[in-house]
Amino acid sequence: MFVALLFSSCEEELVTYGGADYVIFDGLAANVAENGGAYTVTVLRSNASQAITANLAINSYFADEPATAATGTYTVSSTSLSFGVDEYSTTFTIAPVNNNIGDGTKVVEISLSDISQDGVTAGFPGDSKFNGKFVFTIADDDCPPEFALTNTWFGTVYCDDLGYTTNLVGTGSPTGTCGELSVNANLIGATGTIVIQFTKSTVTPTQGTVVVNRQVYRSNGEEYEGTGTYNESTGAILINYSYYRANGTFWFPGTNNIDLTN
User: What span, in angstroms and rounded, lies between the C-alpha atoms of 157 and 189?
Assistant: First the structure.
């Protein structure tokens, strides 16, 4: 039973809510990252004189494909909630599944249903059933499939400065941006780091072009830039580069081959 105080002038008037009892979500929605861990949802009720149960009905889908169920992308601690006598609230948790798939944004709609006590509404009384549904949105933290190719070069890579050095060991790492690869290696006779941006071919999915925008290569201010190609099937990245002195003047050109085998 819901009780409220109304104030008129300086006097208090006690008003008793006499409508239908209800069970509601304490909130309407939440947005979390796929790697954000479990989220606790609180459910409230207006009358705690009896023990009751309320079930959860779940509808999930991919934001870009609403007709496709997002099965397996989340877990719910329980789909049946119990309130004991004098218990006005209970909780459950929903947790994203942190996969390694670029599957986009997922939406999980959770509705209250099948309340065991007659006369108790799911949501506030009325046609809208306000707060009877909770929408949980999961933001993907993985790159979509067209950028998954950069994973090919995560870890040990072998680098050639064609005509000069061969098979020098380097490391490929994610930058945190889809379609980019950071490589730390000896590429020009000294060790430095470059960030390579990939553009997938629309004709051959495992091949495409790469760009290294002009960037500082070494701490002394020397710069590297280049363009080239990649082939995911052979594991090779070929970059025709230009190298610049710390004062910004062009120094020399070259070609790097970054490969998975020595």
Answer: 16
SS (H, E, C) 200-249: ECCCCCCEEEEEEEEEECCCCCCEEEEEEEEECCCCEEEEEEEEECCCCC
Low-confidence stretches of the chain (pLDDT < 70) are 1-18, 146
Contact between 90 and 60 under an 8 Å Cβ cutoff? The reply is no
Structural contact between residues 240 and 255, judged by C-beta atoms closer than 8 angstroms: yes
pLDDT digits (tens, 9 = 90+) for 107-116: 999 999 999 9
Token pair, residue 81, equals 């909630």
d(CA 231, CA 169): 19
The residue written with tokens 């979500």 in the block is 25
Both structure tokens of 116: 């065991």
Distance CA 222, CA 251 (A): 9
Contacts of 249 (CB under 8 A, 6+ apart): none
Q: Kindly list the structural domains of the chain, giving each domain's residue range(s) and its CATH number in brackets, ordered by start.
A: 21-139 (2.60.40.2030), 145-259 (2.40.128)
- Tell me how far apart the alpha carbons of residues 61 and 72 are, in angstroms, rounded to a whole number: 11
Radius of gyration of the chain (CA): 29
What is the rounded distance in angstroms from the CA atom of residue 220 to the CA atom of residue 245? 9
- pLDDT at position 240 is 98
pLDDT of residue 13: 59
Strand order across the beta sheet in which 39-45 lies: 74-76, 89-96, 39-45, 22-25, 121-122
pLDDT of residue 2: 45
Q: Residue 252 — left, alpha, or beta (φ > 0 → left; ψ -120 to 50 → alpha)?
A: beta
Grouping H, G, I as helix, E, B as strand and the rest as coil, residue 21 is coil
